[in-house]
Amino acid sequence: MIPVLIVLNAGSSSLKFQVFDMVDDAEPQLVWKGLYEGLGGSAHFVVKDNDGAALDEMTWSSGDRIGHEEALMHLVSWLRSHQEGRKLAAIGHRVVHGGQSFSAPVLVDDSVVEALEALVPLAPLHQPHNLEPIRIVRRRLPGLPQIACFDTAFHQTQSDIASLFALPREMRDLGVRRYGFHGLSYEYIASTLRDYDPRLADGKVIVAHLGNGASLCALKGGVSVATTMGFSALDGLPMGTRCGAIDAGVVFFMLREMKLSPEEAERMLYTKSGLLGVSGISNDMRVLRSKAASDQDARRAINLFVYRITREIGSLVAALGGIDGLVFTAGIGENDVATRAEVISGLSWAGFSLHEAANSAGGPQITFGTGPTAWVIPTNEELVIARQTGRVLDATRERLAS
Ligand code: AMP
């Protein structure tokens, strides 16, 4: 029997999954991937093979009341009827916040669930959804190992100074500090740099994870030394619907002068700001690009996005003391030729020279000449979760055997 892992990434009304074969010490092999969306309403399920060909699909009406629990049990029974020669060995979960305690993936037990629940106030819009499937599996499939893999853990290598806010000491004691996010993506990129250029793996690299969520990470020798995200996933770059870094005084203005409740202010900053808020049109870069020539607000949203990326890269170059390479990844970074061109044009001071044809072709290398290099590298957060899950399972087995 081949052991298989399910990798889960749960959102408020969605459940993304990938299933990997785990053969001895080999790299996890993707077998199936899919998605439940519209959970709690009219739910839809689709599963594809590793070439992206659809294998199965199903739609439920809202009267069927398909939530996360029903979706998970449907997935497990779909697997049972398709997993010939395979046996479910564990589930690996994406968990956005590991706080100060979790600097590595961890086998979930009661005390871990309790510690992760205590972190909900630090990531109120993500952490509860990440924890829900963990609780469901503990209830419905007791005994199945679950491993929590954290978006924050990769940044635990940052110095005390890089993670400090200039706030009174008691705030830090409460856990108010820079954590950083998108760590699973950055770990994947760091693991792959040597395949592109050994000088990147050993050097000073900035990774631009530009998706609906967006952040930058400064890597020195493949290790995180600084990032644009901070205490919550709101900080740093403007994103699809999140504001990125703003003056904290704006929040007081929202509460005191606009009389918004904390929940209304939070909703505005998380879901109505960023590309959507500035353009008033969409959080989707493809839509904004298609309207940019005729719509000033679409153009303004893109210009702000590019300006902030370029400015923050300057800050991270200073934190690194130089730059050898820049990597673009995630939905916009991997696909939007114009965003890459505009960012690199804003970085000519650092010696970057865009290779236009290579950029249009999607890379991997999109610069020429003797300056620092820029690259397009597709991210793979699910593979990192599968790797981490496999490692924790092996370590647990060894511990039990000794
Ligand atoms: P992600 O969160 O990584 O899935 O990225 C979502 C973002 O990537 C959205 O803003 C999309 O508009 C953007 N995106 C995806 N494909 C393309 C594309 N072909 N060109 C430009 N932007 C894209």
From TrEMBL:
Q: Which cofactor does it need?
A: Mg(2+); Mn(2+)
* UniProt KW Magnesium keyword: yes
Cite the binding residues for substrate.
Answer: R94
Pfam families to which the protein is assigned, alphabetical:
Acetate_kinase
Q: Which InterPro entries match?
A: Ac/propionate_kinase (IPR004372), Aliphatic_acid_kin_short-chain (IPR000890), Aliphatic_acid_kinase_CS (IPR023865), ATPase_NBD (IPR043129)
Where does it reside? Answer: Cytoplasm
Q: What is its main location?
A: cytoplasm
User: What are the entry keywords?
Assistant: ATP-binding, Cytoplasm, Kinase, Magnesium, Metal-binding, Nucleotide-binding, Transferase
Residue sites binding Mg(2+) per the record: N9, E381
Query: At what residues does the UniProt record annotate the site feature described as Transition state stabilizer?
Result: H182, R242
Q: Which GO terms describe its molecular function?
A: acetate kinase activity
Which family does the similarity line name? Belongs to the acetokinase family.
* Physiological role: Catalyzes the formation of acetyl phosphate from acetate and ATP. Can also catalyze the reverse reaction.
What is the protein's quaternary organization?
A: Homodimer.
Identification of the protein by name? Acetate kinase
Q: What is the lineage of its organism?
A: Bacteria, Pseudomonadati, Pseudomonadota, Alphaproteobacteria, Hyphomicrobiales
